[in-house]
Design goal:
The chain contains three helices and six strands. A hairpin with a 4-residue loop joins β2 and β3. α1 packs parallel to α2.
């Protein structure tokens, strides 16, 4: 059964918010857990269940300030899942937030967006 998930950030993991009624997923903070696949597995499971059960619009906000290579792979896997959902439903929007002066995060978002064919907004903030 699908339930809302809200996890606080830690020193090495981002805050995670997944809300069913709002159709919202948000990943915010720094991501460099010791085992990225293990950390992100509940997100994969939640997305799979949401896609199977809800079949509704989904907004995914990435508000990361740093992520390591293994987290990057997990983020790409999340985006691949979203792309597959978009391909059959066209009900996905991804927002990649980055601090105005953070060229690395802008570049990361741009690189992720290049591999996708769905709404992917790069959003600068102060």
């Amino acid at each position: 059964m699908l339930v809302n998930i809200m996890l606080e950030s830690t020193k090495v993991t981002p805050a995670i918010t997944m809300l069913i009624e709002e159709g919202l997923v948000e990943i915010a903070g720094e991501s460099y857990p010791e085992n990225s696949v293990e950390f992100y597995q509940p997100i994969f499971d939640w997305l799979d269940a949401y896609i199977a059960e809800e079949k509704r619009y989904l907004t995914v906000n990435f508000k990361l300030t740093y992520f390591n290579t293994s987290s990057s792979k997990c983020l790409m896997d999340i985006l691949d899942t979203l792309q597959s959902y978009h391909n059959v439903s066209e009900q996905v929007e991804v927002n990649w937030y980055y601090q105005e002066e953070d060229e690395d995060m802008l570049e990361s978002g741009t690189e992720f967006a290049e591999d996708l064919d769905m709404t992917f907004k790069l959003v600068a903030y102060r």
